[in-house]
Amino acid sequence: MYSRAQLRKLPANTVPEIARVPLDSLFLQIKALDLGRGDPCSFLLRALEPPSQQAISAAETALIHIGAIAQGSAANAQMHTASEAASIPLELTPLGAHLARMPLDLRVGKMLLFGALLGCVDPVLTIAAAISISRHPFLSPVEQRSEAQAARAHLRTEKSDHLALLRAYEGWSSELRRGGAAAARRYANTLFLSVNGMDELHALRAQLARTLGLLGLARSTAEAAHGEVAGIKEMHQVNLVRSLVCAGLYPNIAKIQMPDVKYEATAQGAVETANEDARAVKFYTLPNGSQGYKRVFLHPSSVLFGATNFEQQERFVVFHSRHLQTNTNRIHLRDATVVTPLSLLLFGGKVSIDHDRGSVTVDSHITFDAPRRVAVLVRELRAECDNLLRAKIEDPSLEIRSHPVLAAIVNLLSNE
Asked: Residues of the chain with pLDDT > 70: what percent?
């Protein structure tokens, strides 16, 4: 119901969907189908009610960050000067060709694709479904927030909202198998989980598994490991799952800034002490265009909220979404996971190596000290992944699950 005054303020016609929603998937489909002679920008501008140039540019930038399109080939890039390279048209990458075949959000599709390639299918199916459903599985009633946090305290140890969702689903599905819907409902109530949300997650997870099967990819970790129990356990290691979350959510990334080290005077001299003040731990999103580092905050429902015990290698988080809280004017990050440098190097953005300084940089903003051999290894592994994806496109029946390159990536991440 609305008043006549409100009715008079409404537009005469609904704004076209093409002008209201992100254009990432549409842009990719146009590119994959080679419409508009391979130029999605000009093709979209020929629509009856075209989207804004800003929206088109945002879609193009998002696809570049995801790795679905890139400027020319590596060979072309080496043959042109910097000014000439800027005019090289964008091409569909092997990753982009696969994503164009998946009727999914691109980030979810990328996470699933790499999960299937590396054989870590079951956890990624659950996480991909959890971030895609309309209802968040974790409930945080205002009047029972402390009880909900206490009930889920055991899910905080892995420093990841996505892994917390994974563990909650594993427990829920175990109860469902053993005791049926009633047992699963009791488990959900104990952990303050949405019963309808868990049912929706369960159904969508099965649908995503079918999508992988239609693309000729493994639908479960057991299928990828050919039923070997030891292989299944190896593929579900925490570091590997974190890295696959990073693959899907990058470039949604924030830097963790730890507080200055405190020292306490003792008889043996000054001793470093831990700073337990969670307010001293700050989070900043990385520069984007003309915007510099911007401070953000974890949502109070996050398992990372209030955490202070981040290790030396834990200086970044990837997140699913950000929301502006109007009453405080703060930007809150939802569904965050701590990731390590190796995850960002393997699944982040464009990598550049500075041999003289012994460093490697991701997307011009994230720099790590790295020996030359490590930097070169990462670059070569990423190139080989692209080659495998390209080969899989040309021959969908090609068996690549046991390829030594994929085994090397899994080994690196599992032993990080």
From this structure: 88
Give me 259's structure tokens.
Answer: 């507080």
Contact 193, 376 (CB under 8 A): no
Q: Among 86, 142, 68, 127, which Cα is nearest to 318's? A: 127
pLDDT range class, residue 265, cuts 50, 70, 90: low
Q: How far is CA 237 from CA 217, 231, 233, 279, in A?
A: 20, 11, 7, 31
Concatenating the DSSP letter of every residue in 221-240 gives HHHHTTT-HHHHHHHT-HHH
Q: Which value, to the nearest 10 degrees, does the dihedral of the CA atoms of residues 256, 122, 401, 118 take?
A: 0
Phi, psi of 275 (to 5 degrees): -95, 105
pLDDT, greater one: 289 or 343: 343
Please give the torsion angle defined by the CA atoms of residues 119, 378, 161 and 178, in that order, rounded to the nearest 10 degrees: 10
Give the full edge-to-edge strand order of the sheet including 366-369. 351-354, 359-362, 366-369
Residue type, 154: H
Mapped onto helix, strand or coil, the DSSP state of residue 403 is coil
For 148-157, the CB contacts below 8 A with 24+ separation are: 148/192, 151/190, 151/191, 151/192, 152/191, 152/192, 152/303, 155/303, 156/303, 156/304, 156/307
* Close Cβ partners of 28 (under 8 Å, ≥ 6 residues apart): 63, 68, 69, 92, 96, 99, 100, 106
**35-56 pLDDT tens trace:** 888 789 999 999 888 999 999 9
Rounded Cα distance, 389 and 208, in Å:
19
Statement: residue 85 has pLDDT above 70: no
Q: Would the CA dihedral through 67, 232, 227, 404 be positive or negative?
A: positive
